[in-house]
Amino acid sequence: MSLKAEMRRLRELDWRELDIKEAGMWPWSLQLLCCLLVLGGIFFAMHWYLAGPARQQLQQAQAMEVKLLGDYRSKAAQAANLDMMREQMNMLEARMVTLREMLPSGAEVPALIDSITETALDNQLEIDYIRLRDTAAREHYVEQPFDIQVRGDYHRIAAFLAGVAGLPRIVTLHDMTLTPEGENGQNLRLSLLARTYRYRQREKDVP
Questions:
Q1: Which of 162, 172, 160, 163 has its CA nearest to residue 196?
Q2: InterPro entries attached here (predicted)?
Q3: d(C-alpha 157, C-alpha 180), whole Å
Q4: 149 phi and psi, to 5 degrees?
Q5: How far apart are CA 170 and CA 144, in angstroms?
Q6: In whole angstroms, what is the distance from residue 153 CA to residue 143 CA?
Q7: Do 112 and 167 contact (CB within 8 A), yes or no?
Q8: 202 touches 105 (CB < 8 A)
Q9: Burial of 177 (0-12, 13-18, 19+ CB in 10 A)
Q10: SS3 for 70?
């Protein structure tokens, strides 16, 4: 049968009278078209069933590849700078040891108070009091606050503050107030809160 005759047969076909039970009597072109549609449906279903999970796994593997590449680059950069990082770490550890040595132990706090007293006397200041407060425990250190009140002229007070800041043990100064005294106001009264710190791992008995 020629192709023209087959095409004419398809055009003249009454599609409403088609019966699947008589598919063998359909024009061969219609049978071929139906076979192609069925094969296409089967292929699509197999692709969706088999390739869908594989595609998802591929996307996950690609995302993991990007992450691993990023980790690799980061670690490669760290490895390239390993010697410099070790040197910096050694410097930081040495600096930390130096700072820890500047923190007094519990037994050294009275000696620190004596040093502050001597600094005040060396600068010819009158000491009203140097009074310890209760300690406050922090995560890595113990804070020891104490109140200081001294009297003298401006230059001697400034020298006293510089001397306290230059002590070998760490002392921080807070809440400083200066109040004039006397008729001419040349003398001043200095009140402040000072704090020193003790490294907790050095303490056998932490308050």
A1: 172
A2: PilO, Transl_elong_EF1B/ribsomal_bS6
A3: 12
A4: -140, 120
A5: 11
A6: 30
A7: yes
A8: yes
A9: exposed
A10: helix
